[in-house]
Amino acid sequence: MTARLFLARPLRGTVGETRRVCHLFPVPDEETARLVALCGDEFGPGQLEQLDRPAGMPCESCLGRVPRDRPEVGGA
Description:
This protein has one helix and six strands. By secondary structure, it is mainly beta. The strands form two sheets. Strands 1, 2, 5 and 6 form a four-stranded mixed beta sheet that branches. The protein has a two-stranded antiparallel sheet with strand order 3-4.
């Protein structure tokens, strides 16, 4: 089974600039109030900007947890 993932990073002002890294998130099966990145960081509504391509620094913890079955990266 192929994991469906999307990229997002915290919006300016929600965290310090050094923490605005590009996280990987599993596409949720249903609507959820909070999204949890592969690294375990949680974000609520209005805290993220979805990215259509990698931008800025990647979250190294997310990268280390990418499923080995070649994930699809795309929109939610």
